[in-house]
Structure formats: C-alpha cells, structure tokens
Amino acid sequence: MAESTGMKLKDLVEEIGLQIENRSSDYERKRITTQVINRPGLQLTGFYDYFDSDRIQIIGVAETAYLNQFTSEKRLEIFEKLFESGIPALIIAHDSELMPECLEAAKKHDMTLLKSPKETSELIVNAISKLKDVLAPTITRHGVFVEIYGEGLLIVGDSGIGKSEAAIELIKRGHRLISDDAVDIKRVDSTTLMGSAPELIRNYIELRGIGVIDVRRIFGMGSVKWAEKIDLIVQLETWKPETQYDRIGNEYKYMDILGVKVPYITVPIQPGRNLAVILEVAAMNNRQKRQGYDSAKEFTDRIDHYFDSLSEN
C-alpha cells in the first residue's frame, strides 16, 4: 500500500497521548490503514485464523492476567508469534505491567510498543474516533455549503447561476457559511456525510464583480462554521418552460455520494424569485420531514379524502 494512504502511527500516538516503550525503525513512516482496533484474546491462545494483522492491537487487564498464568518462556513465545504477524503496533492499556518478555520480543522483531494509563474501552474509543476522522472516505464536490436553521444545505448548479450570491443573502439573514466553490465531503458512517471547506478557501466567498471577500471579517465569527452534516442537496437550474417541475413536493429524489443517499431537490431560477427565502423554506421543510411530518403527503391525503367523500355522495 502506498505510504501516502492512511494515518501516520506517529500522529495517532501524539493525538491520544501514548507513551513509547519501544520505537520501531519505521516508526516515522508507519501508517495505519484501518479504523478497527483489536484485542488479541484468541491470538494469545494461538488461534490466528481470520486474524487481520493491519489492525493496532491493545492489551488490557484481562489479557495481562491471562498471560501471567504462563512461564516466562511461554510468554515470550506468545509475544513473538503476535509480533511475527506484522501488526503495526501493540498498546498496553490501563497502565498494566509491561512484561519483560513483551519488550524483548518487540525489540527482536523491531515492533513499536506503546503504553497508556487509560482504561482499555476508553482507549479503544479514542483511537477509533481519531482513525475514523482521518480514514473516512472523502470526496470534493463543486458547490456552496451553508447551514440554515441547523440544516446543512449543499447548493449545486452551473457556474454563475447565483450560488454564492444566495449564500451571501443567507449569511445576512443570520445563517452560516461552511464553504464556497468547493466542499470536502467525508462519510463518517453508513448514513452520515460531513461537509467542510478546504483549508485554503475556508471563510472566503467569491462574488463576481466584487472579488473574493472574507466572510468572517465582514460579518463576524458567527457567520461561519467549520463543518456540518449534509442534510439536503439543492440543485439550482435556469427555469425551463418545457420542464414539468414538482409542484406538490411528493417526489422523493436522492443523490448518492460515497454510498450515502441524501435528499435532493431541484429549484428552478428565474427573475423575481427570492432564492434565499426559498432555501430557508427548503431547509425547514426538510427538517420537518426528518422529524416525521410531511406537508406534501398530508395535502395529498386531504385531496384524496375530499374526492373519496364526493364519490360516496
């Protein structure tokens, strides 16, 4: 695997405050490529079927108590077999005793050995959280990302259609900018996408005829936000008279990004339409749908009930 992928072991050690007991020769280059952490319970008994050696291994109080049952020679054999598998690192949690056989085997096999005073479960949660943040699948999309009433709206459409201008109007109305022009999208789990701005353009927005402005300096700290969940995608397009647009709101469309389906609507643009207000209503309507209330469905049900009552009469 290319060295450019994954999270550096060194960065993870610094992020969660691990103590280095033995540093491997490739410590500075070693990268973690999976979000999963393993406690090698079965492996300490000698069972290595289905073992994923790409995972960081953590030994806690239970594993330490199990190993203390054996002679020094047997413990050395167990640790050597574990390190021979090619794991990226071994962490001793809960300030458990660092067995001399473990240190000996780590030096022999040039393995990074780490310690932490944290409880095993807390350490695993912290490590997985950091790894998920770095290793989550990421893609960059063209668009403007804003937060409106707590809803993350990704506004997409052809260049020059008015996405940035709509964002400025929304900012003036008290909403927040996350990113203009390019949005980094990260899948944090199977149902959630987070959007943020590339660092180079964070807090900036481009307005044709004016240029690039710093939103944070002009409108204040409350006008920007670093990241937000993507709740709705709004496609802006020039109004086409021949196109039949959804007038009821009961057409449910989704856009697939990184395997996550996000609600998606198309808003036609023409002179006289207040785009900022339309986007505010879109955000509020989407939030109501997520909370279980669908006004379009209620309206359709009322119409159906009305005609049903007429037919009965």
For the structure shown, list the relevant keywords.
313 residues, 6-stranded mixed beta sheet, elongated, alpha/beta, 5-stranded mixed beta sheet, 28% strand, 10 helices
Assembly classification: single chain
DSSP summary: helix tally: 10
List the uncertain runs. none
Structural class: alpha/beta
Structure notes:
Helix content is 34%, strand content 28%. The chain is built from 10 helices and 19 strands. It has helices at residues 9-16, 41-44, 61-67, 72-84, 100-108, 120-135, 163-172, 215-219, 275-290, 295-312; strands at 7-8, 19-22, 31-32, 37-38, 56-59, 90-92, 113-115, 138-142, 144-148, 151-157, 176-179, 182-189, 192-196, 204-207, 211-214, 227-229, 232-238, 253-257, 260-269. Strands 11-9-10-17-19-18 form a 6-stranded mixed sheet. The model has no long low-confidence stretch (mean pLDDT 92). Helix 4 runs parallel beside helix 5 (100-108).
